[in-house]
TrEMBL record:
One of its GO terms (biological process) is translation. It is found in: Cytoplasm. GO terms for cellular component: cytosol. It comes from Bombilactobacillus mellifer. Signal peptide: none annotated. Belongs to the RimP family. It holds the Pfam family RimP_N. Gene3D superfamilies: Ribosome maturation factor RimP, C-terminal domain, RimP-like superfamily, N-terminal. InterPro entries: Ribosome_maturation_RimP, RimP_C, RimP_C_sf, RimP_N, RimP_N_sf. Residues 11-85 form the Ribosome maturation factor RimP N-terminal domain. This is Ribosome maturation factor RimP. Residues 88-157 form the Ribosome maturation factor RimP C-terminal domain. The gene is rimP. Keywords: Cytoplasm, Ribosome biogenesis. SUPFAM superfamilies: YhbC-like, C-terminal domain, YhbC-like, N-terminal domain.
Amino acid sequence: MSTVTEKVTALVQPILQAHGFYLVDLNYVKEGTNWYLRVFIDKPGGIDIEECALVNQELSDQLDVADPDPIPNAYFLEVSSPGAERPIKTETDLKLAVDQYIHVSLYQKINGQKVYEGYLDRFDSHDIYLTYRAKTQTKQVVLPRNKIAAMRLAIEF
């Protein structure tokens, strides 16, 4: 049996493709007594509020007529941008993050650090290659992907 997120993903993908957008993340969560269906979308150059509202309306229409209903509970639908510090979860996210400033959290220390911030130079199926600043020096590090707990875009200060 498909999960709610799988069913909604199947409904939202054609909508996004028709407008040149892509799905960043989708989650269905209970917070307190309420359920939330959150859809995070983007496009090259960024997504704006009108585009989020357009997808919200089109997806809402699709969910209203879907048979069987993919969502068993009453819920709030939220469609939004992933934000400036969006998570990097997929291969597509990684491709878009090359040459961008990112934050990487590790499960265990590498070279004495569990957190790195720097520019993603490149990646392959096993590692990511990062250029970062350590005080006044520019350094490079290779981080095994299986040691990475989370990655996101970051704002450089």
